[in-house]
Write a structure and sequence with these properties.
Layout: H1 2-6, H2 14-24, E1 30-34, H3 41-60, E2 69-76, H4 79-93, E3 99-102, E4 111-114, E5 118-124, H5 128-133, E6 141-144, H6 152-159, E7 165-166, E8 169-170, E9 174-179, H7 185-192, E10 198-202, H8 215-223, H9 227-235, H10 250-256, E11 266-271, E12 280-286, E13 289-296, H11 301-314, E14 320-323, H12 328-337, E15 342-345, H13 360-373, H14 384-390, E16 395-398, E17 401-404, H15 407-414, H16 419-434, E18 440-441, H17 449-453, H18 463-468, E19 473-474
Parallel strand pairs: 1-9, 1-10, 2-5, 2-6, 6-9, 11-14, 14-15
Antiparallel strand pairs: 3-4, 4-5, 7-8, 11-12, 12-13, 16-17, 18-19
Length: 475
């Protein structure tokens, strides 16, 4: 059995070695390893946990047992995320002959049984029954992957479980947190004003030789409109992320309020009222400009459908996009029956780029934020309420994909549903989807030389030539 241990010889990067050595130092209690994307954080968490558990086996001469010592806990905020990501990293990293996965029982949590001798529990911090087990657990270490998802209170009960002794000997207890930058408790505890016993070891993509070629360029492409996120995700600069979870910045919206729309094409957008005090929102967009809007209380689907059909007829039979979740499905069906050009927007449906977005709602909001950032959105009739809602929507990167917070979470924070924001997002999304001429820009007097100068396809051309091409230029 001892010889089999030697067969697993992972090669650590320089920064992983620093983090590994820090966890051996009795003066250090907690290590935050991360600071950027692609730094090999989950891999290091798995390797460190396995080697530590095996070291304990050897050190105390532990043998196979029906009641192995449960030495530590690995997890994420959401148990399903741990299973689908971190646990997969474990499977890809640790040789399968050294462990087996065990299902949870009333007595024991789900755990990784190593060589039949020692166990590491795993799971999430999202279920109260799992958290209750920490009250009686005795661990020597805890490891949290993507710890930026957690709150400080999530960790408190876990920390109380660091009291394991083996054969009467008290162990060196340690905590390992991996994280991408986010304005959260980790930054306060490890970076801005580090607590005693805490240390931050940055991990950058450049430290990880196993990343696919072009990884940094992929990050640049994904976050190019958010330079502060490039600084955070690529260079590990936590000082740049005060509003990193805010998908649309207020300064972008403010700039759009003094510009005319670059997009062309008329669309009617509707976010029906679904619950309690929610309001149905209707917007008529010309490109990204709001030509007309109205708010309606909850009403029968037939009344809402009739109103949308009337507005569409009065505006050249323009297409109608409707949020089809909930009662919106009935509105879509009725408009179809009446022969209207209607598009169902299901925010939970698959995005066109599944590898980048969790769902269609995430894709719609992320692309809208890019248009705002690039000053491609003009909305002279932006209301203060719409501005507030647009700048209140938050997002996160989960399992490598962009996820927008639910309407329910936004409603908890704002006190009301973000109906105007969702309606506007769907409208811009629909303009791009159904109006072929939306991506053409006509250089009339409404467009300033500065705005034309910044146009992506016209860079490098003399200003006179840019005006000369004022017919139709693809954006």
């Amino acid at each position: 059995m001892e010889k089999r241990k030697v067969q697993f010889s992972p090669v650590l990067t320089g920064r992983q070695c620093i983090a590994y050595d820090a966890l051996l130092d009795p003066k250090i209690k907690r290590v935050l390893y991360g600071g950027a994307k692609g730094g090999g954080k989950s891999w290091f968490l798995c390797v460190k946990s396995f080697l530590y558990a095996w070291d304990i086996c050897v050190r105390f001469g532990l043998r196979e047992s029906n009641n192995p010592i449960h030495i530590g806990w690995l997890g994420r905020k959401q148990a399903t995320d741990f299973t689908s990501t971190t646990l997969q990293t474990w499977r890809q990293t640790i040789p399968e002959e050294y462990y087996e996965l065990r299902s949870g029982t009333e007595k024991d949590s789900k755990h990784i049984l190593i060589m039949g001798r020692i166990a590491i529990d795993y799971g999430g911090l999202d279920r109260q029954e799992s958290i209750n087990k920490f009250n009686s657990a005795e661990y020597a270490f805890i490891g949290i992957d993507q710890a930026e998802e957690t709150e400080r209170d999530d960790i408190s009960v876990l920390r109380g479980s660091l009291r394991l002794t083996i054969k009467g000997e008290r162990l060196h207890y340690w905590e390992l947190y991996t994280a991408n930058p986010r304005a959260c408790w980790l930054r306060d505890d490890f970076i801005t004003d580090p607590r005693k016993g805490n240390i931050f070891v940055p991990a950058l993509p450049s430290d990880n030789p196993h990343l696919p070629e072009g990884y940094e360029e992929t990050l640049m492409d994904a976050f190019g409109h958010r330079p502060e996120l490039i600084q955070a995700y690529l260079h590990g600069d936590w000082s740049q992320i005060e509003d990193s979870s805010q998908i649309i910045k207020d300064k972008w919206v403010q700039a759009a309020m003094s510009c005319s729309s670059l997009f062309k094409g008329k669309v009617l957008s509707c976010d029906p009222a679904r619950f309690g005090d929610d309001k149905a929102k209707i917007m008529l967009l010309e490109g990204s400009e709001i030509e007309y809007e109205e708010t309606r209380g909850q009403s029968r689907t037939t009344e809402l459908s009739a109103r949308l059909a009337d507005l569409s007829r009065a505006n050249g039979d323009c297409p109608i996009v409707v949020d089809s979740i909930g009662i919106g499905a009935g509105v879509v069906d009725e408009l179809h029956e009446w022969g209207r050009n209607v598009i169902a927007f299901n925010g939970a449906a698959k995005a066109s780029r599944e590898e980048k977005y969790y769902n269609l709602r995430a894709e719609g909001y992320w692309e809208l934020s890019q248009h705002f950032a690039k000053r491609e959105i003009g909305c002279l009739r932006m209301t203060s309420e719409l501005r507030k809602q647009l700048t209140s929507i938050r997002y996160e990167i989960r399992n490598g994909r962009i996820l927008i917070e639910s309407k329910e979470k936004v409603k908890e924070r704002l006190g009301h549903s973000p109906d105007a924001s969702d309606c506007y997002m769907m409208g811009v999304w629909a303009v791009k989807k159904v109006v072929p001429t939306m991506s053409y820009l006509s250089y009339q007097a409404a467009y300033s030389p500065n705005r034309i100068e910044s146009h992506s396809l016209l860079k490098g051309l003399p200003l006179a030539e840019k005006y000369k091409r004022r017919g139709k230029v693809l954006v």
